[in-house]
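call fold target=Endonuclease III
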Amino acid sequence: MRKAEKERVQKILNLLDEHYTTEYKCYLNHETPWQLLIAVILSAQCTDARVNIVTKDLFVKYPTLEAFANADTKEMEQDIRSIGFYKNKARNIILCARRLVQEFNGEVPSSIEELTSLAGVGRKTANVIRGNIYHEPSIVVDTHVKRISRKLGFTKEEDPEKIEYDLMKVLPEDHWILYNIQIITHGRGICTARSPKCGECFLREYCKAAEVEK
């Protein structure tokens, strides 16, 4: 990466640090690693706010990983019915819990390979766990990170895994987790998908999409 581009990236990161938190923050309520894993599985194609509403009762009804492992699929479907793709998610959560109990002694693994071997766990979910639980530098490519990273010119890719690798090359490792948190906040408040508030955006000067609009 050229010196000028490195400086541009650093200026963007400095602005994100200035406007948003520099503390690690997770928007999904949880008390244990396995609760976060279940919450992230539920969060696919769903808002964190909706997931938190559902898990508030879900984690009371199923207080242990073993309780999830032994749950009835049809009953679990009803427990999470207000969340999209609830049938697939109910099946995956139970299968995931069973495998954690039977093969991992109830512990959530930390490696990307072991995490993605679990039912319902892709790279995005695995990276959330690695970043939030194990504080392993990781990049989570959700809808906000994908959209805004493309606008900033950090990637031209559409595939989340390819975007992840592009961002790993562009961003300093010590900012990987923070970038996720900050861009999600930015995507929810300013650079929204339907009606971005470009006039209010402190990153407008560095936005490739804004340059096209000029």
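return ok
The mean pLDDT is 93. Residues 41 and 120 are 6 Å apart (CA to CA).
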